[in-house]
Amino acid sequence: MKNTLAPLGQPFMKMHGLGNDFVVIDAREGDDPVTPALARALGDRNRGVGFDQLAVILTSQDSDFKIKFWNSDGTEAGACGNATRCVSDYMMTQLGVDEVKLTTRRGALSALRRDDGMVSVNMGAPILEAALIPVTADPLALPLKGAPLAVGMGNPHCVFFVEDVESVDVAGWGAQIEHDPLFPEATNVEFATVTGPDRLRMRVWERGTGITLACGSGTCAAAVASHLRGLTGRKVIVDVDGGTLEIDWRDDGVWMTGPTAHVFSGQLTQSFMESL
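The structure corresponding to this sequence follows.
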């Protein structure tokens, strides 16, 4: 019988953390294949694979590996907490260890696998200096309706505390704030409600992507903001649309813990790659 399968090209993996989904490409043994055009094509949920973020694993001289992130609109992302946990879990299995050091645009980070199988990553200290977030106003007193806070976690976040997060128009409000002139590089937007002692319910609009079921760096930003506002302590449980994350703002950085999932592995066809 004639083989009608298309010739295969670039391997990839599909992963998710609480429904925050990623395409992951391990490029440690070759050149980085990702361009803005490929990121946009892969991110298309109808004509590509679909993802919230694309993560590329690269070699690093200073750590076990490096991760480069892309949004589905073809722009680069400075950080992605849930993808960092998923890739770290994969790399720990590859290396036969339970702790790794990694590098992102944010700098040097670390991750570990707990005895219960959950993966924790240290996302580094929160950034509260306006120029480094970046934002053109006092991060703790933004001149916006709702009195949000700006927090940097390697990418910018604008965190609103609302009475009922379930009733918020995340798409409408989030898209508006994402491109507010206060944020020269645009921003992720989080909406959170305090639901109990040291517990938040959060929904998110991600810069360059839109609504997602979870956002690791955004969850960290919301936990930091809630402590700065005096609403919670430094150790917070955050319920997002896709599940629950544990955030612990320690002296050495903001640790985020949650589950990871490797759903499937595949290969892009040569014709798909050549069509870009």
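The longest strand covers residues 8-17.
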